From TrEMBL, chains A, B:
The lineage of its organism: Bacteria, Bacillati, Actinomycetota, Actinomycetes, Micrococcales. PANTHER family: GLYCOLATE OXIDASE SUBUNIT GLCD. The keyword Iron-sulfur does not apply. Its cofactor is FAD. It comes from Arthrobacter wenxiniae. Transmembrane segments: none annotated. InterPro entries: FAD-bd_oxidored_4_C, FAD-bd_PCMH, FAD-bd_PCMH-like_sf, FAD-bd_PCMH_sub2, FAD-linked_Oxase-like_C, FAD-linked_OxidoTrans_Type4, Oxid_FAD_bind_N, Vanillyl_alc_oxidase_C-sub2. One of its GO terms (molecular function) is FAD binding. PROSITE patterns: FAD_PCMH. It comes from the Bacteria. This is FAD-binding protein. Keywords: FAD, Flavoprotein, Oxidoreductase. Belongs to the FAD-binding oxidoreductase/transferase type 4 family. Residues 42-221 form the FAD-binding PCMH-type domain.
Length: 467, 467
């Protein structure tokens, strides 16, 4: 099949599915929509890109693709880090970025209904204006979409206390692989009618259906008072000990983040942090209990930090001061990107294995002569080793890939999972194949085949498809 | 097929799957294991009952049944209220009640691993001894099993703040319909490798697999201080208003229960409550924030109760005093059972629809001349109308069934779901058929057929199987 002709014909055909101007096939557009933010994950060039504005338009395109043997790759903001939105052979990319309407904010029921293209932070601000809180806070919250968050079951910093995206999804509007529109889940606080298909779709990376609307649970905005506690540590091990002690003490912090010396130096060189001497890790904690309870908890965290060898411990309650203390966390990623393209790892190990996992990452970096910095949602055991490979240095990239694989192996050896919050996409398919039992992989295949017999939606992603 | 011969042959065959003494086929045993606690749900007599002691034994029995065209009905403690454990034609009941080992309590990772037959309260006590808390608290917590809780995604009183069973299930050991053993989920705090099959199995009522072990997340025991607030109300509407105001105020209570006048009178006649005059509803709230924060919240709840027309408002912090205030809640069900067999309804409506739903229940009771009392997890909108039909009064039972159907219809009209926490089983199949879109029912059928093509496991339960 000649792809030029096909693409041209296809644009004409798709014009029957969506209004003029919403089908893109020019070189720049198909290139722009050909992949997400995953370094190294393979991608092709889509036949066309559709900017859908309604669920019915998504359904029309999927129905067309299904009946013509084409594939559909759904896409939110393209901020994914595993290649879940990367284009595949013979695919139409359906972008939901124009579906940005917040359809309902219900203060009586503490829920909101929004289209899939709504930016996470836009929903957060809209519900905050009505005294409500949408907790899920992936690092990309200012640019990523609710649909993408749901499709990948995105995590974030507050997960350690408040859970992940899936914990807030009550219901979904979904376009199935044949183009049928269904509504899953509920609007009530509880409900067990039938299988939990909402949770099956959440995190399925668009392989079973395209999420076009989400109904999310909200919490009250009131009743919380943020307090930050930070401390610098002489070793990753001492920082890891502090994390373990916080967990064992019965304190559930609202955030507990770790930044290693590599990150700290990168930020320091860029912004001038005036770091204390001999620093190998920074821990940043938040507690959000109000009043004296919160103050006591913050003091206990500070004491644990100190007892574990932490120095330069500071506390803050003023939002601006908290922002200042969390500066290194916020700037770590851009500071590292100044050093070269960053491959973001995403492994999650039992909390008690965090120090050992950090040691193994250091060993792998040394052995393979690559630069690996670490940001970690330490309270969850969710580590993001950031592997930096200089542009054009083929040998360094090869060594970085070796380190990537070693880290995934080490995580599994320590009882961990190969992706804590970014998803399998394409990048973690080998890791998923190693992690999941054959019987469990077979369950995935059976479900995919039952719901998408033609393999229309996002084929080859999310779990190992080939034996 | 002659069932007597079949049963005898079967016992011999099953002796190859499990040790002697674990296969029951005497009349008393098969009768005892023929149904759960659902009044009115149909049941048959099982061919045999197996008291499994290991996952391997469950697998052997399922494998045998699958290859011989028999059905398997899994069963925990048989406390279900929807007929999910009721025997079906040509079935072996596999009881997990002997699988009572708590395999691990991990304080570092805040998780526990337990066999499916462990009683909810036994796990609660065991983890409490290590400073940890297992929140899910179905009313049956002293007699129901973790496996049954997971298979039905059981709710309870603390759900309004702490969520349902599924919110605590990290992983499962499952026997699939062909007898294969798989391990789903994870032991880490986060993880998104592949589909969320754990959530698919939770609440699937044994139709996709038999849960033999559960890995559950635990919370710290410390950091909470219970405070109870109760108030009597002159009408269901004023009590409903108080519930709505609590929700809108940004307070998330740890419990918010409603008991109507019918329940109150039943308890009063039995135990002598010395009720205030003109009382039509009792609200019982708990808050569990520690220290001054908790005291302030309890005072705010008391003020809301008072402003909504509540009288005789009391607060308590002493555990014994809290028990005394919650006496009517604890004794409501046994007090009603003294009046006749109780059919427990389980509908969940949007919180704001609770007063209207209570009105409709009252109307239906009056119209059909049946006695209906109400216990409600009011903070969740989850109502348990308790329909009492005198033994042997055929006409009254028929009217009670009419009322049952009317309540289910009313719940759907108000945007609710036909089962908030008890499950579909057999009893709510018509309601589920009315609630679920045809496309969603088709998804259920596709998944069931893909994972259990022979229809071995608990056929006909959990969702409408027939078009």
């Amino acid at each position: 099949m000649n792809s030029t002709v096909t693409a041209k014909d296809l644009v004409g055909e798709l014009a029957g599915c969506v209004p003029q101007g919403q089908v893109l096939s020019d070189t720049d557009s198909v290139r722009k929509y050909s992949h997400d933010d995953a370094e190294w994950a393979p991608f092709t060039t889509p036949l066309a890109v559709v900017l859908a504005q309604t669920t019915a338009e998504v359904a029309a395109v999927v129905s067309y693709a299904s009946s013509h043997g084409l594939r559909v790759v759904p896409r939110g903001a393209g901020t994914g880090l595993s290649g879940g939105a990367n284009s595949v052979t013979n695919c139409i990319v359906v972008s939901l970025e124009l579906m940005t309407r917040i359809l309902e904010i219900n203060t009586d029921e503490s829920l909101a209904v929004a289209e899939a293209g709504v930016i996470n932070d836009d929903l957060r601000e809209a519900v905050a204006a009505k005294g409500l809180w949408y907790p899920p806070d992936p690092a990309s919250y200012k640019i990523s979409t609710l649909g993408g968050n749901a499709a990948t079951n995105a995590g974030g910093i507050c997960c350690v206390k408040y859970g992940v995206t899936g914990d807030y999804v009550l219901g979904l509007t979904v376009v199935l692989p044949d183009g049928e529109i269904v509504h899953l889940g509920r609007r009530t606080a509880k409900g067990v009618t039938g299988y939990d298909l909402t949770s099956l779709l959440v995190g399925s990376e668009g392989t079973l259906g395209i999420i076009t609307e989400v109904t999310v649970k909200l919490l009250p905005m009131s009743g919380r008072e943020d307090r930050a506690v930070i401390g610098f540590f002489p070793s990753l091990q001492s920082a890891g000990q502090a994390v373990a002690t916080v967990a064992a003490s019965g304190i559930v912090p609202a955030a507990l983040e770790l930044i290693d010396s590599m990150c700290l130096r990168a930020v320091d060189e860029w912004l001038g942090l005036e770091l204390p001497q001999d620093v190998h890790a920074l821990l940043l904690a938040k507690v959000d209990e109000p009043g004296t309870t919160g103050a006591e908890l913050a003091n206990r965290v500070a004491t644990i930090f100190s007892d574990s060898g932490g120095t330069n411990i500071e506390q803050a309650t003023d939002p601006k001061e908290i922002d200042r203390l969390f500066l290194a966390r916020r700037m770590a990623y851009p500071a590292l990107e100044r050093l070269g393209p960053v491959l973001t790892e995403d492994v999650c190990v039992p909390r008690s294995a965090v120090p050992e996992m950090l040691s193994r990452i250091q060993s792998s970096a040394a052995k393979n002569q690559v630069v690996i910095a670490n940001i970690a949602h330490a309270g969850d055991g969710n580590l993001h080793p950031l592997i930096i490979a200089p542009v054009g240095d083929v040998a360094a990239v090869a060594r970085a890939k070796t380190a990537f694989d070693e880290i995934v192996d080490a995580c599994r050896e320590l009882g961990g999972t190969v992706t804590g919050e970014h998803g399998v996409g394409l990048l973690k398919l080998p890791g998923a194949a190693a992690e999941l039992e054959q019987g469990v992989i077979n369950l995935h295949r059976s479900i995919k085949k039952a719901l998408d017999p033609r393999g229309t939606l996002n084929p080859g992603k999310a779990f190992p498809h080939q034996p």
